[in-house]
Amino acid sequence: MTDYKKLIDAETWAFIERTNSYFPPDAIDYTIDQQRDIYDRMCREFSAGHPDNVTAETTAIATPSHPIPIRIYRTPAPEAAAMVLYFHGGGYILGGLDSHDDLCAELCSRTGYEVVSVDYRLAPEHLHPAGFDDAISAFEWAATTYKRPILLCGDSAGGNLAAAVSHATRGHARRPIGQVLIYPGLGGDRSQGSYVTHAEAPMLTVRDLDFYTNIRTGGEDRTGDLTLSPLADADFANLPPTVVITAQCDPLSSDGEAYRDRLVAEEGHAYWFEEPGLVHGYLRGRHTVGRARSSFTRIVDAVSALGRGEWIW
Prior knowledge:
By secondary structure, this protein is α/β, with parallel strands linked by helices. Helix content is 38%, strand content 18%. The chain has 10 helices and 8 strands. The chain is globular, with a radius of gyration of 18 Å. It starts with a helix and ends in a 6-residue tail after the last helix. The model has no long low-confidence stretch (mean pLDDT 97).
């Protein structure tokens, strides 16, 4: 058994306990509506608001079948090097524009880039590939709307979507300039690595992962579907420069390592950093947990550098 009392510091434990007071460890046993209610409340309680220099505009991308809500964050003089397309986490069933509102606003403020947060469709009402299809539509919209390069970013489920978009658009005339993936689930081998060592980690367990995957697919076996599991792709050539940041105490951490290794094997630019003693979802603790604060700075620096076309690792 992993000794989390040694790996995790007091600040992070306080964050975990506060999170669990809103969104308990057995939340997957609740109804979907109940999960959404308590998740949304938790996100509101953790929200840090907007930096003074950021404005936000909520609008929608028109598609033939449905609108895709988005929120655009800007500073008074946006940095023109790139724009950021952001996909939120939430296990493919939770979250939206409000759940990651303060995070996107801070990312905008600290990088200077315009950040567009995408409210993709959620399961179980919309099974895979609906969320992926919305992510692709958002990329196509950004490629048409912005002349500046597109940088992809996302956390957890959103990191999965960002990577899937990178794989699907590498032949596009406006292929992404880079991607920053934050504790993403990429469809790794569940028989080894962190899936075993951290199967019962605080904040996210393998049981949780199985639940989210089952809801996302409607129980259908989608083995080998690279739009669901980017690590299932047989070809890792010509992908954008990639930075993956994972949490040590998270069953998904090995996905970051595996993804880095696949990219490097194809002579791609890829960097993986595992944050010591942190847990899945730690970005909500970036104002109260020193390790999470440092990690967010690492993420901001990665977004800034990749947006400028720089590889500093």
